[in-house]
Amino acid sequence: MSRRSDTLWQRLARLTPARIGLGRAGAGLPTREVLKFGLAHAQARDAVHTPMDAAAIAGAIEALGLPTVTVTSGAEDRATYLRRPDYGRRLSPESLRALSDSAAEPVDLAIVVADGLSARAVHEGAAALLAAFKPHAEAAGWRLAPVTIATQARVALGDAAGAALRARAVVVVIGERPGLSSPDSLGLYVTFDPKPGRSDAERNCISNVRPAGLSFELAAFKLNWLLTQAFARGLTGVNLKDESDRMLEAAAPDPAISGL
Predict the structure, then answer these.
(1) I need a labelling partner for 125 at 20 to 30 A (CA). Which of 59, 119, 165, 208 fits?
(2) pLDDT given for residue 3 in this prediction
(3) According to the model, what pLDDT value does residue 249 have?
(4) What residue ranges of the chain have pLDDT lower than 50?
(5) DSSP conformation class of 144
(6) pTM of the model
(7) Tell me, what's the pLDDT at 30?
(8) Rounded to whole angstroms, how far apart are CA atoms 161 and 223?
(9) Using CA atoms, how far apart are residues 198 and 203, in angstroms rounded to an integer?
(10) Rounded to an integer, what distance in angstroms lies between the CA atom of residue 21 and that of residue 24?
(11) How many CB atoms lie within 10 A of CB 15?
C-alpha cells in the first residue's frame, strides 16, 4: 500500500466509526486494532448486562419538571429478559394495575423510558433527549402522562403502558442493541393509538440518538414532527414517512431550526 493510499484511508477512517483501513501485521491485524476490537466488544457486553439505575433516571427526569412512575416488565431478572423477549414486551400485573389506577383522564402522549439492551444509553441520553423535546411538547399543548420508567423492557411494552395510561400516542425511549462502536445509542419508537397487539409495522423509529450520532436536538425535532403528523393523520408506521428533513431545508434561514 502506497503512502498516498495510506493517507486516503486515514482520511476516510476519520469520517466513520466503521473499521476500515486498519492496516496489517503480517497476515493479521496490528495489535492495537485487536485491542480496540476487544475493548469495543467488552463495552457492548457491558451495555447489555449492566442494570439500569431507575432511581437515578427518575431523578434526572423529575429535575426537568416531569413527574415519573417506575414499572417492571414480566421478566424477573436480566437473564430471563435476555432469554425470553416475550416477557419483556408486557407489564408485570402489579405495574399494569398501578398504571391503570393512575390514569385519571385521557392524555395525548405517554413517554416510556426503557432500559432495552443498553442501560448505558438511557443513563447518558434519556434526560438530555427529554430536555430537548419538552419545549416542543409545551408549544404543541400536548397533555403528557407521567414519564414511565420501565426495567427489563422491550419496545412493545409501550403498547400496554400507553393503553393503560389512556394515551393517544406513546413514545418508547429505549437503549438500542449495542454495536461495536455504539454502546450508547437510543432508539425512539412512536406508536399512535397504542394497545397490545400492535406490530412493528405500525411504529415509526428514530435510531442512533447519541452524541456521536443523531443529536438530541435533532432527534427531538424529528419526534415532534412525527407526533404532529400522527395526531393529524391518525396513524404511524409504514404509512407515515419521516419528511421532517424537508421542513429543515425550507426553514434553514430560521436560526431556531438551522442550528440543528
Answers:
(1) 165
(2) 53
(3) 67
(4) 1-2
(5) B
(6) 0.86
(7) 87
(8) 19
(9) 8
(10) 9
(11) 8
**The three three-digit cell numbers of residue 85, written as one number:** 423477549
Instruction: Give the pLDDT score at 1.
Output: 46
C-alpha cell at position 146: 407521567
- Which residues are registered as beta bridge partners of 192? 169
Residue 93 burial by Cβ neighbours in a 10 Å radius (0-12, 13-18, 19+): exposed
Cell numbers 454495536 correspond to what residue? 179
DSSP helix/strand/coil, 180: coil
C-beta separation of 134 from 75 below 8 A: no
What is the pLDDT at residue 185? 93
246, 200 contact by CB (below 8 A): no
Provide the grid cell at 251: 426553514
What is the per-residue DSSP string for 205-255? EEEEESTTSB-HHHHHHHHHHHHHHHHHHT--STTS---HHHHHHHTTTSH
Long-range contacts for 244-253 (Cβ within 8 Å, ≥24 apart)? 248/221
Locus of grid cell 429535575: 63
Instruction: Give the side-chain half-sphere CA count within 13 A for 257.
Output: 16
- Grid cell locating 150: 420501565
In this structure, what C-alpha cell is assigned to residue 96? 399494569
Output the CA–CA distances (angstroms, integers) from residue 25 to 196, 216, 260, in the order listed.
Answer: 54, 40, 42
Q: For 210-242, b where at least 16 C-beta lie within 10 A, e where not — what string?
A: beebbbbebbbbbbbbbbebbbeeebbbeebee
C-alpha cell recorded at residue 70: 417506575
Cell numbers for 186: 437510543
Q: What span, in angstroms and rounded, lies between the C-alpha atoms of 256 and 260?
A: 8
